[in-house]
Amino acid sequence: MPSATTHAVVGFNIVGGHPDSRPTIDKPLVNSGSLGNFEQNDITPVIGTEFYGLQIRDLLQWKDQAVKDLAATVSQRGVVFLRDQDVTPTEMKDFIIRLSTLAGCPTTSGLHVHPLTEEGSELGDQISVISSEKQKKGGGLTHQLSDVSRFASTGWHSDITFEKVPSDYAMLKIHTLPKTGGDTLWASGYEIYDRLSDPMKRFLEGLTATHDANFFHGEAERLGNPLRKAIRGSPLNQGTDLKTVHPVIRTNPVTGWKSVYVNKGFTKRINGVSKDESDMLLAYIFNLVTQNHDAQVRFKWKKNDCAIWDNRSTLHCATYDYSGARAGDRVASLGEAPYLDVDSKSRREALGE
């Protein structure tokens, strides 16, 4: 697997990335405050903001600046929550691609098609149906992980990091809920980076990691669905090998902040060190995610609530503590090939904390 290279791009020292999948913005977005008329609340100091009275359907008709401001808010706060959304799967797709485009995604990036999405899916290739009924059949990441561990924290992941061009933003609307349970947690990759010592930061910034989802081949065969081998939202995302290499530390182009970019779901190996060293480093980083509840936000869903998050700088984990039906629709846009701008700042540095 090729290692990351360092090269100059638009005046920055860049580690990783790909010449065919670079952001179209050359500096972070600045929030103009156009959404200031909507009541909003930061759920924790580090991550998570809830807006009140804001409808995605209305944003589809608004000026570009409002959508850019929402993108900036999502990328800065990690995840944004919107209650009781009257939005269809088609409108979700239209909105997330507009959000991603205005936030500077490469011209080659579109909406992701998950490798396990069935051909001729009722809601279209780009909608992933999140369903407890599917989980009971053992589909996807949860089934694979359940064979390894009974710890709920094993489910922490960032979406589709096994692709050469992974997700920038994702949006989930939950429309079917059990009476209680089924919360989702998000953790801030910015905050995890900030909790590393300076020597550890410098060490990890020189490393890459291998992300691997080739276990999906077995899932596809077991479920009787052919794996999606054609282009999955980017020309770089195609074929049968669901494995790639990304920097361990990456920069989010929308904020300009550094974030840890490994996760339990898909990151298998830190490259350039021994396996024992890789196992130790990954375990330490994963522990920073799972054992620091003050770097997390927990969301209790109500019917038709939506969450929009930035996969470049967060991890998330569903809570399977319910027996009733739980279902929703998720759409994920693709961003840039992950890179590290070695001159970028951490979140706390940028905010003067």
UniProtKB/TrEMBL annotation:
Q: Name one GO cellular component term.
A: cytoplasm
Entries under Pfam families matching the protein: TauD
Q: Which GO terms of the molecular function aspect are on file?
A: 2-oxoglutarate-dependent dioxygenase activity; metal ion binding
| Annotated keywords | Dioxygenase, Iron, Metal-binding, Oxidoreductase
Name all TauD/TfdA-like domain ranges.
Answer: 41-325
Task: Tell me its cofactors.
Answer: Fe(2+)
**Family, as annotated:** Belongs to the TfdA dioxygenase family.
Q: Which PANTHER family match?
A: ALPHA-KETOGLUTARATE-DEPENDENT SULFONATE DIOXYGENASE, TAUD_TFDA-LIKE DOMAIN-CONTAINING PROTEIN-RELATED
This one is known as Uu.00g056330.m01.CDS01
Its taxonomic path starts at: Eukaryota, Fungi, Dikarya, Ascomycota, Pezizomycotina
